[in-house]
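[step 3/7] inverse_fold.run input=structure_tokens len=375
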């Protein structure tokens, strides 16, 4: 019998931040994490067969750990200490508290939900994974987006089963409560592989962007040489995992085959993207006979089809270096992200460099997201 997720001893709740509507710029946050108070919350959305399966066998993700996370997190549930509710419910599980603590406090115009548990993504039982993904999508609508219009859901898809993923996109795409399709960065094969093309084709057809969030249950470690020793390595390694995904998308010509596809890399940082584009262009010029299907410099298609979230923010001592990096990537490519309610939350009022001009700040805080999510 699978037990409900019990809330561990909650840290003391810190005072709520001062509500600042009107004092802060409106934010469209590209990375917000809702979760369940208890796994029983998704029971009404699961067929009896799959609820019994969940109780009997549990989730079976592709990784070598029998249970739990690969590494101890920096904080319980990887969360801000003050994001636990006064009743002790885990961070991101209570809409009323989220409204006060996050939506109102940070003047959030729209928050794009990215559920990380449960999702069913990449479960070894693909039928079960598809059932969980479907249930989570219905749970998002009923629990979050219908009662709170500032929140927009992501279509969680069982992306290792492209046929099932496409069917789930078709089921949800017409509902305006969904603003994107959600995948994870550590896929079973590199992100640009053909097995994922039906998903890309469907995303292009329905006009929704694909958000690719870090983590994943591919069975592969975050490094190219096995499982690291420490959580710090895991957190740092997300950027490398994202780079591998972007290189795969570029060299497989995904954005040339699907020119209308919009893709967003989430929570892997962004400073690496400028140098990656330079290196891809350099190698493409020298070895382009290997990839005749890539007819344009990779940086051109990446600047047309790829966006990237700001969290975790790069923080050089000289802020001008960060602004220069943003310009190299493209100020229209960046989307603000907070990662609420997690421990490495970026306050959108302080995360961007102070010297950044007003127009660029507004674009990153909301304007770019309004276009890519078509809000």
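[step 3/7] decode complete -> sequence:
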């Amino acid at each position: 019998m699978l037990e409900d997720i019990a809330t561990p001893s909650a840290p003391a709740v810190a005072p709520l931040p001062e509500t600042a509507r009107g004092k802060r710029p409106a934010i469209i946050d590209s990375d917000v994490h809702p979760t369940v108070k208890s796994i029983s919350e998704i029971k009404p959305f699961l067929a009896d067969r799959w609820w019994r399966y969940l109780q009997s066998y549990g989730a079976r993700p592709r990784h070598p750990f029998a249970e739990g996370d690969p590494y101890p997190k920096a904080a319980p549930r990887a969360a801000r200490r003050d994001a636990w509710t006064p009743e002790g419910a885990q961070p991101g599980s209570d809409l009323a508290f989220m409204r006060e603590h996050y939506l109102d406090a940070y003047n959030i115009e729209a928050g794009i939900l990215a559920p990380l548990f449960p999702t069913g993504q990449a479960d070894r039982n693909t039928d079960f994974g598809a059932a969980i993904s479907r249930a989570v999508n219905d749970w998002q609508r009923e629990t979050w987006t219908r009662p709170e219009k500032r929140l927009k859901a992501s279509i969680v898809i069982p992306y290792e089963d492209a046929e099932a993923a496409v069917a789930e996109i078709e089921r949800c795409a017409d509902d305006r409560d969904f603003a994107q399709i959600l995948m994870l960065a550590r896929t079973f094969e590199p992100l640009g592989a053909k097995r994922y093309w039906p998903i890309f084709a469907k995303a292009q057809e329905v006009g929704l962007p694909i958000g690719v969030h870090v983590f994943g249950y591919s069975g592969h470690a975050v490094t190219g040489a096995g499982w690291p020793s420490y959580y710090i390595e895991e957190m740092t390694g997300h950027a490398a995992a994202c780079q591998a995904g972007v290189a795969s998308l570029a060299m497989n010509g995904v954005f040339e085959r699907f020119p209308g596809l919009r893709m967003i890399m989430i929570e892997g940082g962004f400073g690496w993207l400028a140098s990656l584009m330079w290196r891809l262009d350099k190698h493409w010029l020298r070895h382009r006979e290997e990839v005749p299907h890539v007819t344009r410099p990779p940086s051109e298609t990446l600047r047309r089809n790829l966006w990237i979230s700001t969290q975790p923010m790069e923080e050089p001592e000289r802020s001008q270096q960060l602004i220069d990096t943003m310009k190299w990537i493209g100020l229209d490519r960046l989307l603000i992200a907070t990662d609420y309610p997690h421990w490495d939350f970026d306050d959108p009022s302080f995360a961007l460099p102070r010297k950044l001009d007003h127009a660029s700040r507004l674009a990153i805080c909301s304007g770019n997201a309004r276009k890519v999510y078509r809000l």
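[step 4/7] annotate
Strands lie at 27-32, 108-113, 151-156, 178-184, 210-213, 263-266, 306-309, 334-335.
The chain has twelve helices and eight strands.
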